[in-house]
Amino acid sequence: MKKIISVIPQLKRSKHFAGRKSWVDYFMAQAFLAAEQSTCLRRKVGAVAVKEKRIIATGFNGQVSGTVHCKKCLREELGIPSGQRQEICRALHAEQNVLIQCAKYGPPIKGAIIYQTTKPCITCFKMLLNAGVESIIYEHDYPDEFTNIEMSTCGWMKIKREDNFFCLQPRPEFKFTVMCDAQ
Description:
Blueprint: H1 2-7, H2 23-35, E1 46-51, E2 54-60, H3 74-77, H4 94-105, E3 113-118, H5 122-131, E4 135-140, H6 145-153, E5 156-160, E6 166-170
Parallel strand pairs: 3-4
Antiparallel strand pairs: 1-2, 1-3, 4-6, 5-6
Helix pairs in contact: 5-6
């Protein structure tokens, strides 16, 4: 909890409301708070799905519900770099857990904005894209060069925001609902 408390004051304050955080800062703080629940030994990631300024789901990376948590990281033992061979990991990613929460409990994720601590990997990016998310806002990069290739192919772009967060969103010239349909 101390780590989260120290992150929250660093987020920029909204110019519109004295003493209040911007909505982006508020939802990013929630993503960092979700990350604290992570059971991953290598990296703590949190994600929050938001529609109309309301949180519809949260997720963090970690073991499948009801299973025993890892005591050591198999990928580290095998010397596998971060961002590679994710199928060896027993955990689910934060974005995957957000999608599962929406599927399990019913709020539709189409049109949502995803706020997350770390840029999605290629698999999560494709899952979020296919689910119809509007944009993805994150703070930290993830070492998966294939995400950048897929973003470009599907007409998405990375923008560095004034508040130093990054935003992944469709390029204006692409129609969101058909940009990755197979022809």
